[in-house]
Amino acid sequence: MIKLLSTAAILLSFGASAASFTQGDHYVDLGEAAFNAPNQVTKIYSVNCPFCYKYEKAVIPGFVKNLPDGVSFDSYHITTKPPFGKEKAMVIAVAKVLGDKQYKTAKMAYYKHIHDDKKKFSSAEDAISFGLKAAKIDSVTFSAHKDTSEVKALLTTWDQGVAVAKVRGIPAIVVNGKYLINTKTITSMTMLDELTAELLEK
């Protein structure tokens, strides 16, 4: 009997803690830093960020897979994190416009080069040429796309994440463009999924 009561108490305690998400602890209302992204989960990141790379590999694939039906996911690469953040973002933006495969290839090539291989770029031109080569984008194609309205609009959208990054750094996970998840309080994928689902309903 005691054992059954103890088990019940543990289950009740788990249920209560899983549902007790509070503003200021588990998430932040972004206020003026909010952006227009209804029914969407957005990751703010930079390939220069080692923690963004860890999230990219260990968290994001399962997280995206578990999102509720009808909820979209997007990633905003900010331009402000050095070194050569603007140039890397430009290459990644052009790659995204050209196709999802090229986007992923450029992004992961930068991550690996910087964080796994521990290599640095000697100049902005070096950073650009590396990304283009990895994504198999020739210089003519890059030049033809980098100043288009589509790429400029994409970079402008991504830099909405700059104000978010100033709140608690990156990677930042934002729900509906309004609520920033405090990832330091997340102890499991289930907890992340539950908090995200709750915030999507707010």
CATH superfamily: Glutaredoxin
Could you give a short account of the major beta sheet?
5 strands, mixed
CATH topology: Glutaredoxin
Compute the CA-based radius of gyration.
Answer: 19 Å
* Overall number of strands: 5
Helix content: 55-70%
GO cellular component, one term: periplasmic space
Keywords: Disulfide bond, Periplasm, Signal
Domain Thioredoxin-like fold: 36-190
Protein name: Thiol:disulfide interchange protein
Could you explain the architecture of this structure?
The protein has 202 residues and is of the alpha+beta class. The chain has ten helices and five strands, in the order H-E-E-H-H-E-H-H-H-H-H-H-E-E-H. It has helices at 2-19, 50-58, 60-65, 85-98, 100-116, 124-135, 139-145, 149-158, 161-168, 189-200, and strands at 27-29, 40-45, 72-77, 172-175, 179-181. The protein has a five-stranded mixed β-sheet with strand order 1-5-4-2-3, sandwiched between helices. It is globular and about 50 Å long. It starts with a helix and ends with a helix. Mean pLDDT is 91; it is low at 1-18. Its main location: periplasm.
